[in-house]
Amino acid sequence: VTTITATLQQFKQHLADLARLSQAAALLNWDLETGMPRKGAAARAEALGLLSGEIFTRFVSPQTAEALAALTAPGVTLDATDAALVRVTRRDYDKSQAIPPALVREIATVAGQAQPAWEQARHDNTFAPFVPYLTRLLALKCEVADIVGHRGNRYDALLDDYEPGLTAAALIPLIADLRRELVPLVDAIIDRQQSQPAPAVPAVPVEAQRALALALLDLLHFDSDAGRLDASAHPFSITIAPGDHRVTTRFDVADFRSSFFSVLHECGHALYELGIPAALQLTPLADGASMAIHESQSRFWENVVGRSRPFLAFVLPLLQRHCPALAAWSADDLFRSANSVRRSLIRTEADEVTYNLHVMLRFELENELLGGRLAVTDLPAAWNDRCRALLGCTPASDREGVLQDVHWAHGSFGYFPSYMLGNLYAAQLTDALRRDLPDFDTLLARGDTQAPLAWLRDRVHRHGRMLEPHELMLRATGSAPDSRHFLAYLRSKFLGDARS
Ligand code: ZN
After folding, report:
1. If phi over 0 gives left and psi between -120 and 50 gives alpha, with beta otherwise, what is residue 96?
2. CA of 490 to the centre of ligand 1 (A)
3. In angstroms, what is the span from residue 354 Cα to ligand 1's centroid?
């Protein structure tokens, strides 16, 4: 007779083996983005395909199913962590199991073709050749949504992959509230900033920027014995294994701010994973609660801390030591340079005030695409109309419009709201943090990030994936997620209004 203790132990061993296979895949992916010679791409794709297939097959195997059945049988009691482990694994298992392997393979194949097609279309600045790929991917994702199940809106089934428990119906009023306030707020802020333009940004050599990046990681208590920094075309953060957390940045000689804020952002993601307790490691609980909670951690360090007046004033001498070209800058210059707000076409270059408007545009369009209310061929025109309405500017070409993001070419519909929610969550968490640390600004002015980090570790990091995002926010902040904290944050920072 197998006891529950033995079953649980075997189950954890099985999950740990899967986690170790995922470590190998993560390392291959990291290398692919940071150092792999271009000609290794085809072989690497095959190796990764084999490895992810193996991980998937082992995960949906009878071994997982039997353990889950035994551990959820009537009369079995588990402690809170083990109960969460079973619940989260069950959820992942049911989702993975539901989709036929042939459909999974087809999506991977079409996405594999769609990405180069998207790159070519973007290069040629024409949407039409991308239409068949996007149409096919959309149809496949609709199929997935219908299999996984939803209550009338396919968007919910896909959104659930990134933000468990959230629905489009809950998102729509949140966005409407935010939009109503944000659009006039952008006008007011741009108006105010016109009289105080930011200084021109001098060139800063890559080596100086690299040294600065390492100093910033140090300042944020990123453990250099448990992580490293490299350069890549697109900055990212990846956990290879417990004790091995890697961040990347992109150095732009003409604009040091790009790497400066990317490092803070990616470090925020890494700090989250560094804060997940040992007891959860090598299980599906050793991850963020959701994409948006993860993004709240990166935005906290990048924007709330990194673009704040006290932190920038503290960091200026450090910046000037590494970048003598900035010797004449005042703390005010740096603050203005880090916080200039403008109507722009490109999401990834947007400031923290206009950023969420870019996300709303994408949410509305993908919600309509998945609901069959918008045809792929009409997408560029719909994009441009929305862009005009939300941001007050119109793309001159598809490259600056509908072709700017890779997400849809990956089939990642439902991902974009995570970015917006991350901003809202970061502001809401900061308000709760300020209640416990009323001297937050004073700490930042001294470059002391220890106490805010400890607060985040306690309220967010240590839970890993044990709590769903809504529950985590409720416990960490005392209220359900909303947009008013974020709006108050923007008003206070950009218009100098008293905090509500
Ligand atoms: Zn991020």
Report:
1. alpha
2. 20
3. 17
Active site residue 266: yes
What pLDDT shows up at residue 1? 58
Beta-bridge mates of residue 227: 245
Mean pLDDT of 31-58: 91
CA distance 450 to 448: 6
Task: List pLDDT tens digits, range 219-257.
Answer: 999 999 999 999 998 899 999 999 999 999 999 999 999
pLDDT tens-digit series, residues 6-25: 999 999 999 999 999 999 99
Q: What is the pLDDT, as a whole number, of residue 500?
A: 43
- Residue 257 CB partners (closer than 8 Å, separation 6+): 201, 337, 338
Contact 246, 227 (CB under 8 A): yes
- Alpha carbon of 339 to ligand 1 centroid (Å): 19
Residue holding tokens 């880090």?
338
Query: Is the model's pLDDT at 49 over the cut of 90?
Result: no
CA 419 to centroid of ligand 1, rounded, Å: 8
Distance 352 CA to ligand 1 centre (A): 13
Which of 310, 307, 289, 306 is CA-nearest to residue 425?
A: 289
pLDDT in tens, 55-71: 999 999 999 999 999 99
Pick the closest to residue 444 from 315, 300, 332 (CA basis): 315
Indicate the pairing of strand 244-249 with strand 227-231.
parallel
> 55: which residues sit within 8 A by CB, 6+ positions away?
18, 21, 22, 25
Sequence-ordered list of residues with C-beta below 8 angstroms from that of 9, at least 6 positions apart, any chain: none
DSSP letters, 361-377, are HHHHHHHHHHTTSS-GG
Q: Is the dihedral of CA 421, 334, 191, 489 positive or negative?
A: positive
Single out the catalytic residue among 163, 266, 273, 468.
266
Cα–Cα distance for residue pair 126/132, rounded to 1 Å: 13
- Kindly tell me the burial class for residue 446, based on how many C-beta atoms sit within 10 Å of its own C-beta (0-12, 13-18, 19 or more): exposed
CB neighbour burial string for 22-52, b if at least 16 within 10 angstroms, e if fewer: bbbbbebbbebbbeeeeeeeeeeeeeeeebb
Task: Please give the structure tokens belonging to residue 201.
Answer: 């940004």
Burial class (CB in 10 A: 0-12, 13-18, 19+), 313: middle
Structural tokens at position 228: 């490293």
CA 266 to ligand 1 center in whole angstroms: 6
* pLDDT class of 108 with cuts at 50, 70, 90: confident
pLDDT of res. 41? 86
The CA distance from 289 to 28, in Å, is: 25
